[in-house]
Amino acid sequence: MRSTAPVEPGRGLWPYVQMARVDHWFKNAFMLPGVILALFYRPELFAWASVPPLALAVLATCLIASSNYVLNELLDSRRDAFHPFKRHRPGPSGRVRPAIGYLEWLALGATGIGLSMLISRYVALAGMALWVMGLVYNVPPVRTKEWPYLDVLSEAANSPIRLFLGWFALVGDLIPPVSLTLSYWMAGAFLMGAKRLAEYRQIGDPSVAAAYRRSFGYYTEVRLLVSLFFYSSTSALLMGVFIVRYHVELVLFAPVGAAILAYGLKVTLQPNSPMADPEALYKERRFLTFAILGAAILIALMFVHVPVLYDWFNIEPSAMDRVEPLWTIPPREP
């Protein structure tokens, strides 16, 4: 006969591994644009010597992110008990000892920041910023996750921080363009806002949503949809500044990027949308394939030169455009 006795908290390692959410490490792919931008600006970095610091930066970022996930679960356990799915996590289900959890939080954060210090002070500062944002987002009395819109903007700030981590792993004496950094922040806000909308629709009951998180007591589907239009349009405007200033060829990506955002909104509005739990997006194979293809197009355009576009838009190539392209349209004269 199977025992129905409750599991004693703190017994076994697996619940603590689950709190670190290793399956969320894929989000650190948001470092990739910083890496691509660094290679675009300094093509000599495309060498085997760049692999060790980049790999170390990725590992450090993963550990710092896991530290934030652990803190998030420890502080949200009571409210997550109202969520239809999150209530099964180790924290809300009572399978971990808080004291051990807080030790895990500190150990992961200290290890990640320590590894980032081995690369450069700028990587270390970016790593510390990522960890501090975990405090700002989760810890009272600030706890921005409880404030409408600020919850999205503060969580989305991790996107440009990850861009910095990818950039500074390779380039240590320059700062990425501000226009791109802000655009990336707003693109991240669109994704986080879409997650909020999917969660709100998934819960289905406004009173339960408010009990789960205070900001959800303010949100409605209309307010969340309007915010998504703000984030996406602001991101597009700032990306336009970057394109005109640095690499006008990226204008060819504009319709692709808009289509990805539109497709993402379509996925968000599906019943039981995987956007509420981003690690489940692999189930949306068409969307994932389209997003990967779009990323490949974006990367390719970073290293392509189309002189006629500068004539059409009456733009002079910037100093940053001195990078030798992979190919040219039309072909150069021999």
Overall pLDDT score = 88
**How is the biggest beta sheet arranged?**
2 strands, parallel
Structural classification: mainly alpha
Radius of gyration: 22 Å
Tally the helices: what do you get? 13
Number of domains: 2
CATH architecture descriptor text of the largest domain: Orthogonal Bundle
Q: Which percent bin holds the helix content?
A: 55-70%
- Lateral arrangement of strands in the main beta sheet: 1-2
The CATH first-level class of the largest domain comes to: Mainly Alpha
Portion in beta strands: under 5%
CATH topology heading of the largest domain: Tetracycline Repressor, domain 2
Please trace the helix and strand order, writing H or E for each element.
Answer: HHHHHHHHHHHHEHE
Shape by Cα distribution: globular
CATH H-level superfamily of the largest domain: UbiA prenyltransferase
Poorly predicted runs: 1-7
First-to-last CA distance: 83 Å
Q: Would you count the extended β strands for me?
A: 2
Give your account of this protein's structure.
The chain folds into two domains: 11-176, UbiA prenyltransferase (Tetracycline Repressor, domain 2, Orthogonal Bundle); 187-328, no CATH class. Helix 13 links the parallel strand 1 and strand 2 (327-328). Strands 1-2 form a two-stranded parallel sheet. The chain contains 13 helices and two strands, in the order H-H-H-H-H-H-H-H-H-H-H-H-E-H-E. It has helices at 14-19, 32-41, 51-80, 98-117, 121-138, 150-156, 158-168, 178-203, 206-212, 221-246, 254-268, 285-302, 307-312, and strands at residues 304-305, 327-328. Helix 8 (178-203) runs antiparallel to helix 10. The protein has 334 residues and is mostly helical.
